[in-house]
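Hi Q.,

Before the meeting this afternoon, I wanted you to have the zinc ion prediction in hand. No need to reply - just skim if you have a minute. The sequence and ligand are here:
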Amino acid sequence: MFYGVDIGGTKTEIVAFDKEMQVCWRKRVATPVQDYELFLSTFTSLIDTADWATGMQGKIGIGMPGLMDRHTGKLLSSNVPCLTGRQVMDDLAHRLNRSVALDNDCCCFALSEAHTQQARQFSRIFGAIIGTGMGGGLVIDGQLYRGRNRMASEFGHLPLPATFMRRYNLPEITCGCGLQGCLERYQSGPGLLWLHKHFCGGTAQNGDAAGKLPSW
Ligand SMILES: [Zn+2]
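Predicted structure with the ligand bound:
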């Protein structure tokens, strides 16, 4: 039995696969983003429930937003701030009494897509996720390309071009990564909502944006 767990800035979803990689069980819960102890207990409870539902102890693979320092094992997560500075993989393995594999969610997504029948014909695959945060994964010849600092595809934390900031009088919003004016703050799901309110007012509905938003 294999458990694939997607930890997002809003929800955490687990899917259990049998040895033929057929989905046999799934569950979704809210992600605790501020309280690390609550995060650990929520995750542990989710795995316990999966073990009970499947009748087995599955192997655990996790995709989550953020980067892990390969020397210390500590995470930097913009959208689940309680994980920043924590050795999440080791802490979960200790609590669950089994090994845990963990990697960046966008990298997991891109690697998975790169191995589909449709994508195998391409030597370079870039996968992008726009959700609570924003990021990507780059796969070259079937292998993840991470770059020197393992941030090769983290385009969400590049700065919004200064010309846009000036032209549309946009403030430099502080990002969860610690930088100012990251693309993620303006173009993720919450970022797009912020832009809508910025240009259309706090009470604007979706349809009110027509004709008011600048054409970028
Ligand atoms: Zn950032």
